[in-house]
């Protein structure tokens, strides 16, 4: 994971505030422990993707996050620069959408991205999400406009 993030910093930096600096191995280990604890608590579920022709090489990360309130989960994702446009984010987000909506008590899934991030916004559009609202927020990463698109799919 650390190697994949470091190799994709320039690609991720415009959209991910956590990509402002290259993570150390210690920081990656710390985040992995926190992710494991969140998984065990049932609040956050992170997945790494690789490809059959390159097992073990991370080409993206995807998650179901319980940070938007009861009855809902948010999907987050990133894909390595050299794999953008191959349908990886759409396939992973589609699988996570199905899994989330099959969970007891989950009636809504959201995908959020900055208005300027066209590649990220294409994913929920392709999956049949509806654009629910545009919210104003402080830009947290250099490429952001501060206008966050909130895409929703409901059971």
UniProtKB/TrEMBL annotation:
<dbReference type="GO" id="GO:0005737">
    <property type="term" value="C:cytoplasm"/>
</dbReference>
<dbReference type="InterPro" id="IPR016181">
    <property type="entry name" value="Acyl_CoA_acyltransferase"/>
</dbReference>
<dbReference type="Pfam" id="PF13302">
    <property type="entry name" value="Acetyltransf_3"/>
</dbReference>
<dbReference type="GO" id="GO:0008999">
    <property type="term" value="F:protein-N-terminal-alanine acetyltransferase activity"/>
</dbReference>
<dbReference type="InterPro" id="IPR051908">
    <property type="entry name" value="Ribosomal_N-acetyltransferase"/>
</dbReference>
<feature type="domain" description="N-acetyltransferase">
    <location>
        <begin position="1"/>
        <end position="155"/>
    </location>
</feature>
<protein>
    <recommendedName>
        <fullName>N-acetyltransferase domain-containing protein</fullName>
    </recommendedName>
</protein>
<dbReference type="GO" id="GO:1990189">
    <property type="term" value="F:protein N-terminal-serine acetyltransferase activity"/>
</dbReference>
<dbReference type="InterPro" id="IPR000182">
    <property type="entry name" value="GNAT_dom"/>
</dbReference>
């Amino acid at each position: 994971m650390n190697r994949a993030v470091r190799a994709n910093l320039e690609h991720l930096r415009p959209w991910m505030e956590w990509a402002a600096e290259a993570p150390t191995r210690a920081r990656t280990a710390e985040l992995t422990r926190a992710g494991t604890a969140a998984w065990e608590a049932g609040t956050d579920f992170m997945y790494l993707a690789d490809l059959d022709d390159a097992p073990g090489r991370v080409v993206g990360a995807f998650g179901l996050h319980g940070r938007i309130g009861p009855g809902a989960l948010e999907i987050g994702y990133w894909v390595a620069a050299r794999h953008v446009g191959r349908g990886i984010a759409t396939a992973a987000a589609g699988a996570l959408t199905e899994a989330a909506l099959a969970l007891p008590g989950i009636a809504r899934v959201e995908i959020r991205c900055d208005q300027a991030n066209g590649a990220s916004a294409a994913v929920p559009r392709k999956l049949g999400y509806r654009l629910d609202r545009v919210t104003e927020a402080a830009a947290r990463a250099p490429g952001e406009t501060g206008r966050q698109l909130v895409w929703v799919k409901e059971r």
